[in-house]
Amino acid sequence: MKDFSQPLIQANEIVELLKQDLQLKPLYQKILQQKVIHKTAKERGLTVTPEEIQAEGDKIRREKRLEKAADTIAWLANQMISVEDLEVGISNRLLTKKLAECLFSKDVTKIFAQNKLQYDRIIFYQIIVAQQQLAQELFYQIQEGEISFYDAAHLYNIDENRRNLCGCEGKVYRWSLKPDIAAAVFSAQPGKVIRPIQTELGYHLFLVEKLIPAELTADRYEEILQNLFNEWLSNEVNYLLYSQTETAIAR
Fold first, then answer.
1. What sign has the CA pseudo-torsion 129, 134, 139, 145?
2. What are the tens digits of pLDDT across the range 68-77?
3. Three-state DSSP class for 64?
4. Given 67, 165, 195, 233, which is the most exposed site by the fewest CB atoms within 10 A?
5. Banded pLDDT at 2 (limits 50, 70, 90)
6. Which domains does the chain show, CATH number per domain?
7. Which residues lie closer than 8 Å to 90 by C-beta, 6 or more apart?
8. pLDDT tens readout for residues 177-200
9. What does the DSSP 8-state code read for residue 159?
10. Taking CA 227 as the corner, what is the angle to CA 33 and CA 178, rounded to the nearest 5 degrees?
11. Cβ–Cβ under 8 Å, residues 171 and 121
């Protein structure tokens, strides 16, 4: 009779597979990250209460529509984790969030103010054609009302996807655009077509629909906070790895 009391996969088998797939280092780094987070949180007196874990657990169950206890048990089994594993994971995430707030919440407003222009967005349409002459002709035709910008984009854009969208680029951040293009579109008057600009892709025509000035929204706050925290955490882990390497070499 087969013995099903033993797990199908042993821990050492997991480690060996991670090594073979060159995935051990990323996992090693994640473990180091948790060690750094817990050490720093302890130094700053940060903890997570059972009530906070329970509230977050209830939120997860609602999001996954685990209405009955049996549903939760089945989901945990499918994830190959226990209730304790889930609670530890929740605790780690909450502690990480608290530490990020503790370390960098005061810096978010300053970073936003320093980089506010980069967070500006714009809604615009774009036509790219290969020939300068065609770009100039379209520019004048659009200005004279002989053809709409959208029809021209649908007919002449060299990019099929952009043709299908009639040139619509949607909401775009200033930082995602090349400096010369960003300067042109962000200084343009909405509704006015911009003269052709040449890049390595061809000749561009732009029509700005709307400028969206940057605001420190809740999402933007979290984005900046997370970026600051991730940079700090990466530096801390890299320092530990460097120190370990130096010690190994010295031996």
1. negative
2. 999 999 999 9
3. coil
4. 67
5. very low
6. 11-113 (no CATH), 117-212 (3.10.50.40)
7. 53, 56, 57, 60
8. 999 999 999 999 999 999 999 999
9. S
10. 140
11. yes
